[in-house]
């Protein structure tokens, strides 16, 4: 972008997966916008790997779903084990077609594809190396000051959307609180070359010592996630591989790894998500446990809803407060449901005191008709409508 225009209908702070997708939606709705992103390129590393069918349906509305499907792995089944005993398989085959699978794609590839789609449609709306420093809101507009390639700039917009992640500057400068709880659950995870026979299937091991999840990744790699008793700072390959071996007897020692890390789990929500002309979306608005892989997908659902909402609000000064209040209520409902579903996943993976009941419960969950409900819950169906 050579000359940066000074006014927009919407300014988006943060060009991660949610900010980029919101840009695509605003582009489609013919709303003028800019995305200010401090990084020069998508963050490396895989973090999120699951794109749910509800998100592929949103991507299809923009004619971009096939780009992701081309590069990702379709997970159509997940096998459940108690320790090493196979209890059953949950299939997504009977979920609504054509996206009756969860797509595995590392987050940096997802962000790269979203950016390509955005710049193909409009090369002038994503400004990289642009770090937002201060935000000032008045009755009529928001002023955003940022540094870009060593120079100071300021723009104005009617609405400001914070898509700037968990430590959101937008949220802090708007004086919005981030409330919730930290769970006792801690995990380690790593991406390894795949030496299992699971192919494109996922596998979940409910072990006496704690959960192991194993998901396929593109290029013959596999993500391993293990529940740990305590948070392990600076986890090593040996700690992860020996835990996998001790729990399920599978050796990863001859494999190569591309990433190893640890994480703890929180549930946090911004109160409010909408304050005057400032709106928070994605991780800036909420954090749910990564177990269940919903955070980024939840952000895309926010963004789609927000694009429709802004389309109404920008043309309707009279009812804008009501429209934005209704938007906030819908998003709060979706976050509450996602958090409940993530909690259910985490509880199943905790160290158990009564193994017999867990085996009975898991067997029941994998048999029709409950298996179909579980497949829908695991693929984020009904997150905006159902009571759970
Ligand atoms: C281990 C792990 C596994 C996960 N797995 C999944 C999964 O399988 N499925 C799933 O749906 N979710 C998953 N998640 C969650 C997912 O990674 C996040 O929900 C997602 O990254 C949120 O996207 P976002 O765009 O809201 O925020 P972010 O990805 O944090 O992006 C925020 C962007 O804002 C930019 N920014 C910040 N401050 C400024 C500023 N002042 N000026 C300009 N730019 C700024 C940052 O550089 C960044 O690019 C996982 C998370 C973790 C930790």
Can you tag this structure with a few keywords?
single chain, 388 residues, alpha+beta, FAD/NAD(P)-binding domain, eight-stranded mixed sheet, 10 helices, globular, binds flavin-adenine dinucleotide
Q: How many H/I helical runs?
A: 10
Structural class: alpha+beta
How many E strands?
A: 19
Based on the coordinates given, report the CATH architecture of the domain at 7-74 and 107-180 and 266-348.
Answer: 3-Layer(bba) Sandwich
Task: Report how far apart the termini are.
Answer: 44 Å
Low-confidence parts: none
CATH class of the domain at 7-74 and 107-180 and 266-348: Alpha Beta
> Percent range for helical residues?
25-40%
Which small compounds were modeled alongside the protein?
Answer: flavin-adenine dinucleotide
Mean pLDDT, rounded to whole units? 95
Strand content: 25-35%
What is the H/E order? EHEEHHEEEEHEEEEHEEEEHEEEEHHHH
Q: Give the biggest beta sheet.
A: 8 strands, mixed
- Global outline: globular
CATH superfamily of the domain at 7-74 and 107-180 and 266-348: FAD/NAD(P)-binding domain
Computed over alpha carbons, the radius of gyration is 21 Å
CATH topology of the domain at 7-74 and 107-180 and 266-348: FAD/NAD(P)-binding domain
